[in-house]
């Protein structure tokens, strides 16, 4: 029963799309019709500005943290990891918004922040440094995701948390496959470009 609750609650929490809700409330637009078509912070920032993008980032990260909290309340880190992965799936394929969402980066950030803040600090540092040097948010997200399971291994995190690191990173990188192609072709958007 706990497994079912972890999966369903994580997925439903993840399915609340702050990108869609906030852009409709603030500008009356469906963010999926603009830019990359994704509902996450980067597309919101390019489309309607930094302030709303920060709210989307906060809301999306909160979904990951809340899902982990639900999983932990069920009595196990395993349930927390499962709920966190389900939240990432819900964010990416949201039930309430036609199964078209974001890439799961901020929601995954909320999960690792709650499970293992030290790993989060390292991943965030890699993300910020990469974006600062390259101006590519997608590259920062990919490199930060790659750093998570590596850092978890070095810091000898428990197996369920390491499993989240591997699966979560793989999910984020897979969701960036179009960005990877654009990075290779030199056509990826940089911060500040629309």
Give the tags:
single chain; 194 residues; mainly alpha; 74% helix; globular
Topology:
Elements: H1 2-14, H2 18-27, H3 41-48, H4 50-73, H5 77-92, H6 105-115, H7 117-134, H8 137-154, H9 159-175, H10 177-185
Helix pairs in contact: 1-4, 1-5, 2-4, 3-4, 4-5, 4-6, 5-6, 5-9, 6-7, 6-9, 7-8, 8-9
Keywords: Acyltransferase, Cell membrane, Lipid biosynthesis, Lipid metabolism, Membrane, Phospholipid biosynthesis, Phospholipid metabolism, Transferase, Transmembrane, Transmembrane helix
Family: Belongs to the PlsY family.
Transmembrane segments: 6-26, 78-96, 108-134, 154-174
Verbal overview:
Probably interacts with PlsX. It is found in: Cell membrane. It is a single chain. 74% of the residues lie in helices and 0% in strands. It has 194 residues and is mostly helical. It has one domain. Helix 3 (41-48) packs antiparallel against helix 4, helix 5 (77-92) packs parallel to helix 9 (159-175) and helix 8 runs antiparallel to helix 9. The chain is globular and about 45 Å long. The N and C termini lie far apart (46 Å).
């Amino acid at each position: 029963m706990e497994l079912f609750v972890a999966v369903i609650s994580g997925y439903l929490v993840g399915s609340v799309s702050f990108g869609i809700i906030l852009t409709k409330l603030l500008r009356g637009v469906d963010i999926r019709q603009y830019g990359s078509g994704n509902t996450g912070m980067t597309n919101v920032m390019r489309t309607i500005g930094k302030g709303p993008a920060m709210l989307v980032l906060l809301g999306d990260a909160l979904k990951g943290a809340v899902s982990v909290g639900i999983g932990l309340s069920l009595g196990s880190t395993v349930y927390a990891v499962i709920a966190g992965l389900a939240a990432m799936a819900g964010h990416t394929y949201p039930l309430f918004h036609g199964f078209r969402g974001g890439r799961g980066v901020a929601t995954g950030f909320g999960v690792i922040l709650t499970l293992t803040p030290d790993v989060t600090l390292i991943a965030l540092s890699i993300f910020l440094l990469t974006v600062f040097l390259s101006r590519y948010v997608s590259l920062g997200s990919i490199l930060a995701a790659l750093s998570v399971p590596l850092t978890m291994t070095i810091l000898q995190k428990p197996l369920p948390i390491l499993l989240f690191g591997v699966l979560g990173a793989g999910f984020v990188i897979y969701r960036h496959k179009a960005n990877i192609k654009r990075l290779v072709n030199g056509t990826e958007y940089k911060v500040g470009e629309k």
